[in-house]
Amino acid sequence: MQAQKPLETTLNHCMNCRIHALYMLMHSIWAFRHPKLAFTFPLNILLDINECLIDNGGCEKECRNTPGSFVCQCPTGSHLDSDARSCMSLDACANDNGGCEGICVTLNGTRVCGCSAGFELHSDGVHCRDVDECVTNNGGCSATCQNTHGSFVCGCHQGFELGKQSSRVCSKLSWTKISLGIPL
């Protein structure tokens, strides 16, 4: 019984067959164009095989053929992993929060800054500034509105209190609370 050849040997043999077939094809084309020199075709000619044509060279994203070899490449926002074939996304927010004062999100390897509720992104795209909610529609408050850092507080005029249902709507104090001297 004959031992079966390992798969790697078979694949290498197959690749050698392809190289030989390409060499023979090149020789035939050269001989056709130069019939008088057909037997002087240089035997040591190096043929570049584009490894990228077969399974993208094993590259996850982009394969670039080079003389005698190939190189895997990754799109912007990622880098080549240690296996030289896979791409890893860059985390643009990993160091110093990406330079963002507030929230930092990585999208396709690019940093995008944002801000928490009550703040808006400054025109520099990095810093956050407080939003004065009281400027627009009095912050939704029925009486007074006081801006705070990142928020606001509604208040009521004397004789009124914020309602139990809403922290923005004032309702008239009951006579009981006024006569008992409960602080406003």
CATH topology of the largest domain: Laminin
Number of helices: 2
Helix content: 10-25%
CATH hierarchy, class of the largest domain: Mainly Beta
| Poorly predicted parts | 5-15
For the record, give the distance between the C-alpha atoms at the N and C termini, rounded to a whole number.
101 Å
Class by alpha and beta content? alpha+beta
CATH-defined architecture of the largest domain: Ribbon
Can you tell me about this structure?
The chain is of the alpha+beta class and 184 residues long. It has 4 domains: 7-47; 54-89, Laminin, CATH 2.10.25.10; 96-130, Laminin; 133-180, Laminin. 18% of the residues lie in helices and 26% in strands. The protein contains 2 helices and 12 strands. The chain has helices spanning 7-33, 175-180, and strands at residues 62-66, 69-73, 78-80, 87-89, 103-107, 110-114, 119-121, 128-130, 144-148, 151-155, 160-162, 170-172. The strands form 6 sheets. It has a two-stranded antiparallel ribbon with strand order 1-2. The N and C termini lie far apart (101 Å). 7% of the residues are buried. The model is unreliable at 5-15 (pLDDT under 50).
Descriptive labels:
184 residues, alpha+beta, Laminin, 4 domains, two-stranded antiparallel ribbon, two-stranded antiparallel sheet, 2 helices, 12 strands, rod-shaped
Which helices and strands occur, and which strands form pairs?
Blueprint lengths: L6 H27 L28 E5 L2 E5 L4 E3 L6 E3 L13 E5 L2 E5 L4 E3 L6 E3 L13 E5 L2 E5 L4 E3 L7 E3 L2 H6 L4
Antiparallel strand pairs: 1-2, 3-4, 5-6, 7-8, 9-10, 11-12
